[in-house]
Task: structure prediction
Amino acid sequence: LQANETKDYAFTMNYKVPNYTGTYTLVAYIEAYANDADNSNDTLSASFACTKDSTGIGNANAIDWTMGQNIPNPASSVTRIPYTLPQDGSVTFSVMNMNGQLLLRQEVRAEAGQNSIELNTGDWANGVYYYSMEYQGQRIVRKMSVNR
Result:
């Protein structure tokens, strides 16, 4: 670019702001050319204001992880629950019967990406159960059936 010349660029990578209030600075590094006398002008920065949505109920888009339906469903002896995390972290799985009695609580250290947990349902009575997964203060609950 020549002096005082501009160029628009659309960034293709999403950026999650680590804090929801205040300001943050985005810095773009522009490649220097050979024998560039002043590399300090090879960056571009801009400040942005960021505020937290204060509606009181989090947006559905705020959940950036998933927990799928158990496979197979209904389960007979073993079932697998798929889940996906945006980053490495600790997740807690729980299984409750229809009366809300806790049958299983297991903390798992998982890596970013697709994962699954396998549960042995062979000792459970036929019926409907609820399983949940907690990750970073959020919880997803699903229903499964056991039928032998």
Summary: Strands lie at 23-29, 43-49, 66-67, 78-85, 89-97, 102-110, 113-120, 127-135, 138-146.
